[in-house]
Amino acid sequence: MSKKVIRFGVIGCGLMGKEFASAVSRWIHLEGLDFIPRIEAVCDKNIDATGWFADNIPTVRLVTSDYNDVLNDPDIDAVYCAVPHNLHARMYVDIISSGKHLLGEKPFGIDKAANDKILAAISANPGVLVRCSSEFPFYPGAYKLSQWIREEKFGKIIDVEAGFWHSSDLDPNKPINWKRQIEFNGEYGCMGDLGLHVLHVPLRYGWRPQNIRAVLSNIIEERPGLHGNLVPCETWDNATLACEVEVKGHKFPMTLSMKRIAPGHSNTWFLKVRGTKMSAEFTTKNSKQLSYLVYQSGDEQSWRTYDVPNVSAYKTISGNIFEFGFSDSILQMWAAFCDELAHGDKMSQPFQCVRPEEAAFSHTVFTAALESYREGKTIFL
User: Fold this and answer.
1) What is the pTM of this model?
2) CB 40 within 8 A of CB 72
3) Does the domain made of 136-324+350-380 have the CATH classification 3.30.360.10?
4) What CATH number does the domain located at 4-132 have?
5) DSSP element (H, E) containing 103
6) Which residues pair with residue 5 across a beta bridge?
C-alpha cells in the first residue's frame, strides 16, 4: 500500500515529546492506514534534551535549539509542540503562521488573552489544521462510552461527572517545578494542566456549562526550591467545578474535577454519565472494565461490568484479549490527527482530537472558575 508520509517536527523534547516519538516508532502496530508520520526535525532550547531523539529516531535530520529553524524548513509538514504554557501564544502563533499544521498541548495559551491570539492566527490561516492533545478518550472503554453518547442511548441525561486525578504532588518534599509558578503555568493551576482532558468529551457532545461554582485548593503552600529553601507554591493543586448544562431545553448538573493531589491515584481519568435509559462509567484506574446499566420502565436496576475488548479507534495487531495502556492511547491519538490531516472530514472513524473552539471554551470555563472562587458565588456564562 502506498502511504502518505507526514513529515513532523517536534518542538519541546521533554516527556511528551518522547512519548510522541515512541508512538511514531510503533506505527507498525497499526493496521490498514494509508498514512505514516516521520519525525525529521527536533528542537529544544536545551540542546542536550534533543540527544535522545538523535540517538533513537533515525529519520531525524535537523537538530536545533531555535524553533524558527523548524518553521523555516520547507520539508516539514506538521509540528507537535510541547512547551510550558507561557510559551504557547508566541510559539503556536508562529507555527500556524508558518503554514505548518499543529498538534499542541493544553491549555492552548496561558490564559484567555493568549488563547485569543492563537484563535486569531487560526482564523488567518484556514488551510492549517490545528488540534490539541487529549489521549484518554481513545481508551477502548472511553471510546465505547463516547460512541453511546453519540448514539443518544442515555435518554434524558440525569447528571455527568468527569475528572482527571493524580497524586504527583502529594509528597511535600517534591521540589517545586514550573507548574506551580504563575509566571509559567498561569493562574489556572491544575485546571490549565489537566482541565482540557476533562472537558474533551463533554464539549464534543455539546455539554457546555451555563454556570459554574468553583472550589479551588492550594494544599501544599511551599516546596523546596533550587537551593533547598522553601518557596511559595503559587498555583492551585485541586479544583472542583459544579456546573449546569442545558441540552435541547433540558438542564442537568455536571461536576468537573482536576486534582494534582488525589491520594492513591497515579493518573486516573474518568467519565460517568447517568441517564433515564442508560448509565455508564469508565475510569483508567480499571482500564479493561466498562460498567453500564440499561433501564426500561419496570425493569430491575442492575449494573453490569465487563472486560472491554482491545478494540480501538484504529485497528492494531494486538489481540482483543490483551491490555490497552497509556502508550497505546497516545498512538491512537496521533493516528486521529494524521487521519484528519490526510483525509479531512473523511476520516476512517469519527472522533477527532480537541478542536480549537473546544480549547477556547475551556478558557471561558477556567476564567469563570477563578472568578467564582474569588467572589464566592456562581458565575453565569
Assistant:
1) 0.96
2) no
3) yes
4) 3.40.50.720
5) strand 101-104
6) 36
